[in-house]
Amino acid sequence: MSLGTTRRKPGLTYVCPVSERVLALRCWRGTGHFVHFGMESTMIYSSFKSMLRVFPIALVLTHVVLNAQQPMQWEENPQIGVEINGKIDISSQVFQPTSYRPYMILTSAALPVPVLIDLTKRSVSRLKGSDVTVNEYFAHTNGIPNGRASGNYTMKDGASTFKVAGKTVSITVRQTLVGEVSASMILAHSPDYRIRKNNYRPKRQAMDFLKSYRQKTDVIVVFATWCATCKELLPKVMRIFDDAANPAFTMKYIGIAMGGNEPRTAIEKYGHDYPAVIFYRNGREIDRIIADPPGALEDLIVTILK
User: Fold this and answer.
1) N or C: which terminus of the chain has fewer CB atoms within 10 Å of its end residue's CB?
2) CATH architecture entry for 179-305
3) Backbone angles phi and psi of 216, in degrees to 5
4) DSSP string of 85-137, one letter each residue
5) Measured between alpha carbons, how far is residue 22 from residues 61, 67, 82, 120 in Å?
6) Half-sphere exposure in the Cβ direction for 272 (13 Å, CA)
7) Comparison of pLDDT for 60 and 268, the residue scoring more
8) Cα–Cα distance measured from residue 73 to residue 63, given in angstroms and rounded to the nearest whole number
9) How far apart are CA 114 and CA 169, in angstroms?
10) pTM, whole model, 2 decimals?
């Protein structure tokens, strides 16, 4: 959070940029109140001269705290596609700070170390493995890690390209799919989905049931291209129902916009769950699968339909 300088009467107001976790001097009023983010303490001084003696100390302390390495959380952005040496890399994860700072961290099984990308300087740095801790769709660091410079990235035809560890890395930010779309549109938009779909192997016994199933069922798949869990669930759903090749199932895929408020009509009808696989029979919802549940997805589908 960054704030500008303002004035109040009586007294002087000084506003400095701070994070919500930092106890920093914000302002002094004629009553001698010092206001901090997160807490307020009152210090009574007899004169303006007393305040001036304390003011420089507070500024120094603020500077020290602001420059300390604070724990940072980063969240995966699955709308960023990654190619390494010209091939789609489904092991890659691109993280951005949840505090909206102009950096990205790339991790990949194809690279020996994580990579820090500075979007302001268009620079790339190699990090140490110990600089980044990844927990599923989140990464954690102590502040912005200091890495070893590895050059700059170039931009062409919507892709940002750079070299690291002797490999050519290309990253592309995809547009968000919103509203009803076909499975082929999703696969064209996110080519890594196709690889994940082809890699998934549904269980034969469950597939035998789904191939012979005869009750007309509508399957509504609600997803978001910016949702990390969706990239795990959707390819499985596509593989299962493609392999079933059963006309008893009518498939519908609905993409959700960033922020989760569009398409409004679909959200009002199906709710705010995504990813979600919703089953309708005779116009009535019989059950739904939310997120990427443990175990074989096809087994869960069979349990719902029986």
Assistant:
1) C
2) 3-Layer(aba) Sandwich (3.40)
3) -60, 125
4) TTEE-TT-EEEEETT--SEEEEE-TTSSS-EEEETTTTEEEEPPGGG-EEETT
5) 11, 11, 36, 25
6) 4
7) 268
8) 22
9) 12
10) 0.73
32: left (phi over 0), alpha (psi -120 to 50) or beta: left
Whose tokens are 């679909």? That residue is 266
Listed range (40-54, 90-104, 189-203) with the worst mean pLDDT: 40-54
Distance of CA 96 to the CA centre of its chain: 7
- In which element (H, E) is residue 205 found? helix 204-212
Measured distance CA(281)–CA(175) in Å, rounded: 33
The domain segmentation of the chain, as residue ranges, is: 11-66, 72-173, 179-305
Neighbours of 184 (CB within 10 A): 10
Residue 180 CA to residue 188 CA, distance in Å, equals 15
Assigned token pair, 299: 């087994």
Q: What does the H/E/C string look like for 223-289? A: ECCCCCCHHHHHHHHHHHHHHHCCCCEEEEEEECCCCCCCCHHHHHHHCCCCCEEEEEECCEEEEEE
Amino acid at 221: V
Q: Examine the pLDDT at 5 and tell me if it is beyond 90.
A: no
Neighbours of 50 (CB within 10 A): 13
Find the helix or strand (DSSP H, E) in which 208 lies.
Answer: helix 204-212
Other CB atoms within a 10 A radius of the CB of residue 192 amount to: 19
